[in-house]
Design goal:
143 residues; alpha+beta; Beta-Lactamase; 24% helix
């Protein structure tokens, strides 16, 4: 499935799972167009500024931090109250976005992956350069 999404979008695709209270990418298919993309497999990033992490927060399986969250870029949300409001929009839309929040110039969209019972087991994300980011990528992850 990851490869099919990567072929359809031309962008990097990641699969993430929980490791304790941390969101970790466990598989990645690199973009066809970029050389030297970051290999995010087994790299821990603050989940509040990643689309993959926001999926787990929105599902309630990762507790929302009570204090200020780490600012990775000027676009990173650091207020728990504003973050809770964003997660309400994620739940309503069925997908999460991170637009320049983890790295400037990197945008991502992600959606939950569920088992046959409907339980969240992973998150699937697409990421790529902000300059090339079409709104149509959201259609690949709508639930």
């Amino acid at each position: 499935m990851l490869e099919a999404v990567s072929i359809a979008t031309g962008e990097t695709v990641n699969l993430a799972m929980l490791r304790g209270q941390t969101v970790v990418q466990v598989a990645q298919i690199d973009s066809r167009f970029l050389l030297g993309t970051t290999d995010w497999v087994n790299v821990e990033v603050p989940p509040h500024c990643s689309a993959l992490g926001k999926v787990f927060y929105a599902e309630g399986v990762v507790p929302i931090p009570s204090g200020r969250m780490e600012r990775r870029t000027p676009k990173t949300m650091t207020s728990p109250g504003a973050f809770r409001s964003q997660l309400e929009r994620v739940r309503a839309a069925g997908y999460a976005e991170a637009l320049g929040e983890l790295e400037l110039g990197l945008d991502a969209v992600a959606a939950p992956v569920r088992d046959a019972s409907g339980h969240l087991v992973a998150a699937l994300g697409i990421s790529g350069p902000s300059a090339d980011w079409p709104p149509s990528f959201r259609s690949f992850v709508r639930c």
